[in-house]
Write a structure and sequence with these properties.
Layout (H helix, E strand, L loop, with lengths): L4 H14 L3 E3 L11 E3 L3 H17 L4 E3 L5 E3 H7 L1 H5 E6 L6 E3 H4 L12 H10 L16 E4 L3 E4 L6 E5 L4 H6 L1 H7 L6 E10 L14 E11 L17 E4 L8 E3 L1 H6 L6 H16 L7 E5 L11 E9 L2 E12 L1 H10 L6 E18 L1 H8 L3 H10 L9 E4 L5 E4 L4 E15 L2 E8 H12 E6 L2 E6 L10 E5 L4 H15 L6 E3 L5 H10 L4 E5 L1 H6 L1 E6 L5 E5 L3 H7 L7
Parallel strand pairs: 3-10, 12-14, 24-25, 24-26
Antiparallel strand pairs: 1-2, 4-9, 5-6, 5-7, 8-9, 10-11, 11-21, 12-13, 14-15, 15-16, 16-21, 17-20, 18-19, 22-23, 26-27, 27-28
Helix pairs in contact: 3-11, 12-13
The protein binds one RNA strand of 75 nucleotides through α1, α4, β5, β6 and α16.
RNA sequence: GCGGAUGUAGUGAAGGGGUUAUCACCUGAGGUUUCCAACCUCAUGUCACGGGUUCAAAUCCCGUCGUCCGCACCA
């Protein structure tokens, strides 16, 4: 009964719906593809996973959290490259209606079809008699731009500003680089994280939670000085074996520790290796099966427009290997792009020299009394051009080019030569960034997939969700052995006490036989069950049952909150 | 987006131009039980949405939306 993976996937999906973990959104209005709700169980599960992620990175000590708007002005996304990159052109076949990326159709006929205008694409398609890949016809509609971003406007009346729902959270961290730099007292390296919604208007969302139109992202931007040798301590993982799948151009899949992969240059940058290792730690800590994690390097052709090296953490589950985390070395791409788009010069960091550099310069300085009357309204432009002059003229008079392209003749009495000595203590540079970007929904899906365990109990199917206690949405279920007498009263009491404790959630269940209630709790992954029986009324003790093996021990109900807060210890059982 | 399949309680299914729309599990109440989906009685709840054909539509037709599979797409 458990052999068919498709059937298992259907049972799991049904259970998630039935128990209020993951549900289709807006269902009474017909539903919308690619949008999901987290229900009463799923909502808290998602929050816990999110918090676990934030805490995991905060623990590193040099990473802070920020939060940015989801509505993003167009200019930001033009600078970042998303408007260009997400604006692929599509060609539609008139015969069969098939739709293809125009640049893919003309691959081989142009060295870089990505940059072509729609007219050129159409021209190239017809000149080379490109046939439809589906029906073989040669009858194309004009290439149309297709933008995967949700567009909107800022401002309600006419005019306003074009904007998009952010396709990633990363831009927020780049926008706030100056504030982050100040926060960290002008010292690299440091990082910033942000979790929140991202939006992509996918053509065809499929595979449940794998491809969504609105999804939970968690991104980290770690800013480093490219000239400082990064040193990371990989000793924690010396005996860990990670699965690596390098770009086929560079090598075969292999197993080794992340430290080795870094020293052997399989991972090109040690900071990328470091974040891969820390990502692995995170995934395992929230309940992903380590045997089902692999790191796959992007091939040159699929590398995102910003990345210079990129590894995906892929997780294996019911849909095969799925990319759940992308760890990219983005170089200085983003900061440079925003700098050149805005002219803002605060996106740089200061690198002091070991020794101050003494620079001797000879400059020509305009004599105001001569330049002014000679050039009148051009005088200030002449002075600027003189200051920028690097090579001293060999003779006078000489021709000087102004910033606006005009040329003027400079006589020797207009200027004087000055020797300037300055001391430079350092330089401004664009930091590089390593970006681990997590798809929370995809990870959450795989946590559920890996935790969902089907077995048999007394000839009947029995399912347990073996969620890690660190993210289980309900910590403990409170069960009066019978819902009468003072048993129910005592159980309610304990339930309220646990719920009012920070970071603990309990669930009161009083209906049905005790076995049925254990089963209900097991199905949604409650790690602990507390049962109140007649002995409890006499001496205040209760039994606590461990989900994964059904083992029970008796403890004092007064100790319950403390025991659950620190997690019941192994020697208790 | 194209092609195919499909949509009936919370879940899984049966049925089908005129029925009080059926069954199991689940859920709730009462009884029984006194620690791992027991049992008895009762109860709640369903034909995706919109339009058409018809005296009559959950059933036939069309459209929309959703789901699944294949193709295409997928920072």
């Amino acid at each position: 009964m458990m052999s068919d993976p498709q059937a298992r996937l259907e049972r799991l999906t049904s259970m998630l719906r039935r128990r209020g973990v993951i549900l289709p959104a807006f269902e009474i209005h017909g539903g919308v593809a690619g949008l999901f709700d987290f229900g009463p169980i799923g909502g808290r599960l998602r929050r816990r996973l999110n918090n676990a992620w934030l805490e995991h990175w905060a623990a590193q000590g040099d990473i802070v959290e920020i939060d940015s708007p989801t509505i993003t002005p167009e200019s930001v996304l033009i600078a970042s490259g998303h408007v260009g990159e997400f604006n692929d052109h599509m060609s539609e076949c008139n015969a069969c209606g098939g739709v293809f990326r125009s640049d893919h159709l003309v691959e081989g006929f142009h060295s870089n079809p990505d940059v072509l205008a729609p007219k050129d694409l159409d021209q190239l398609i017809s000149n080379n008699n490109v046939n439809c890949l589906t029906c073989g016809a040669m009858d194309w509609k004009d290439a149309q731009p297709m933008n995967l971003m949700f567009s909107t406007r800022i401002g309600t009346m006419k005019g306003g500003r074009t904007a998009y729902m952010r396709p990633e959270t990363a831009q927020g961290m780049f926008m706030q680089f100056p504030a982050l730099y100040r926060h960290f007292r002008n010292r690299l390296p440091f990082g910033a994280v942000q979790t929140g919604k991202g939006y992509r208007n996918e053509i065809s969302p499929r595979q449940g939670m794998i491809r969504l139109r609105e999804f939970n992202m968690a991104e980290l931007e770690y800013f480093i000085d490219p000239e400082v040798e990064s040193s990371h301590d990989f000793s924690k993982w010396v005996s860990s074996r990670f699965n690596f799948v390098p770009d086929p151009e560079f090598g075969e899949p292999l197993e080794m520790s992340p430290g080795e992969a870094s020293t052997q240059n399989i991972i090109r940058h040690p900071t990328v290796a470091w974040f891969m290792a820390r990502t692995w730690d995170f995934l395992v800590s929230v309940g992903i099966d380590p045997a089902k994690i692999r790191f796959r390097q992007h091939e040159g052709t699929e590398m995102a427009h910003y990345a210079s090296d990129c590894w995906d953490a892929e997780i294996h589950g019911s849909y095969g290997w799925i990319e759940c985390v992308g760890i990219a070395h983005r170089g200085c791409y983003d900061l440079a792009a925003h700098e050149s788009a805005t002219g803002d010069n605060n996106l740089r960091a200061w690198r002091p020299y070991d020794e101050p550099k003494i620079v001797d310069k000879t400059v020509l300085s305009g004599k105001g009394a001569v330049i002014g009357p000679s050039f009148r309204d051009q005088a200030s432009a002449v002075n600027e051009a003189l200051e920028l002059l690097i090579d001293m003229p060999s003779k006078f008079p000489f021709e000087l080019s102004l910033g606006n392209g005009d040329k003027v003749t400079i006589e020797s009495e207009m200027v004087e030569e000055k020797r300037i000595q300055s001391t430079e203590h350092g330089e401004w540079f664009l930091p590089h960034v390593v970006e681990p970007a997590f798809g929370i929904d995809r990870i959450l899906w795989h946590i559920l997939d890996h935790a969902y365990l089907e077995s048999e109990k007394g000839g009947e199917a029995y399912t347990v969700l073996r969620l890690s206690p660190s993210i289980a949405p309900i910590d403990v279920v409170i069960l009066p052995l019978m819902e009468k007498d003072e048993l129910a009263e005592m159980a309610h009491d304990i339930h309220r006490r646990i719920c009012s404790t920070k970071n603990l959630a309990s669930y009161y269940d009083g209906s049905g036989s005790i076995g049925r209630r254990y089963a209900r709790a097991d199905e949604v992954g409650v790690p602990w069950a507390v049962t109140i029986d007649h002995e409890s009324l006499q001496n205040g003790s209760v039994t606590i049952r461990r989900r994964d093996d059904g083992k029970q021990v008796r403890i004092q109900s007064d100790d319950l909150v403390d025991t659950l807060t620190i997690g019941p210890s192994a020697n208790l059982f």
